[in-house]
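Let's sit down with a protein and look at its sequence and fold side by side. Once you have written the record down, we can walk along the chain together.
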Amino acid sequence: MHGELQELGRAVKQVQYRQHRALDSALQAVGTTLAQWDALRAISRTPGASARELAAATFQTEQSFGTLAGRLTAQDLVERRPGHGRRIEHHLTPAGEQVLAAGHKVADEVLADCFSPLPETERATLLALLQRLTASRATD
């Protein structure tokens, strides 16, 4: 059984790797990277979030996210504002909103291609199964 589970784990990782490479490559056309676009998405979902919250949302360390946020700020895509206490809040600038929107269009095209071998019903099943797995490990 361990061989089958390892094969399953590797297959999930392989699909993720291909998807990330395709997204990162395609996002270059709109002047961003997958890591930057993912950060913009996270900030858009939770305006005013701290670096700690955004690092967790983007699967990064606080230090890595802080470096990335600094680059996004230098590109005028993100604005950092003082919050309560020592908290620094993150917000998208109008330019950040534009890059995010352009990235959404690119991602929709790339992901449609990535999942095109599966009919809609199988994509829905895959999504439901993955959601079950992530929900069962929500405390991680």
In short: The chain has a mean pLDDT of 94.
